[in-house]
Every structure is written in structure tokens, then in C-alpha cells.
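Q&A log
Question type: sequence-to-structure
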Amino acid sequence: MPAWRWQNDLHRASIYTTFPAPACTMRDIVDGLAEALGKKPLPVRIPAPIAVCAGKVLSCFPYKRLSGLHTTIEKWLAEDVYDTSRIETDYGFYPQVDLIEGLKREVRWYRQNQGGTC
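Response status: OK
Response body:
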């Protein structure tokens, strides 16, 4: 997720969300990443309790890629809202692109610089 950390002293750091206004939810971010990656979400929605339970079961398998699956699923299901008011107030920073364009740029950068596909 696009965010940056500003070290304001040796003992404390602040994390700022740099998405443009209006505030966005995790669902907005997941949908935006799907679009940026050129992926389509599953046509069938899985009920949240079933997804969480399946994630916990799959996390028990001895595969590194599955080890944190339940945590990822719980984060995707969270109703967190991300806004930029703190960084705007503290530093006068205002994002210049919208969420979808920012995610597309991040995916493009990753593919070009990490040599992988995502």
C-alpha cells in the first residue's frame, strides 16, 4: 500500500497514508489492485466467516506462501478507512494522482524493477 515513513526522531516514526481524498476503504484498495493487475475478482463472493475459517486452516499447512493467509484475509475484510488528513495537516502534502492511477504506477514500477510478474 502506498505509504511512507517519516523518521521524526530516533524513538518514534509516523506512518502516513498517501492516498488521495476522499478516504478509501480496504475494499477500494483490493478492487484497485485487481484493476491495476488486470485481474478480475471471483464472480462468487465467499461469506466472511467461511473465508476466515478457510484461511486459518490453510495457514496450518507447511507452505510458506500460506503461512499468513488468515491474517491477509482478516485485513481484506476489515472496515478500515484510510485518509490523508494527517499528512496534509503535518506537511501540506496532497497526492497528485488518484488511487487507481497510483496503484497502476506502483504495479508497473514493481514489474519493471523487480523483474517479476504480479
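Response note: The CA atoms of residues 20 and 96 lie 7 Å apart.
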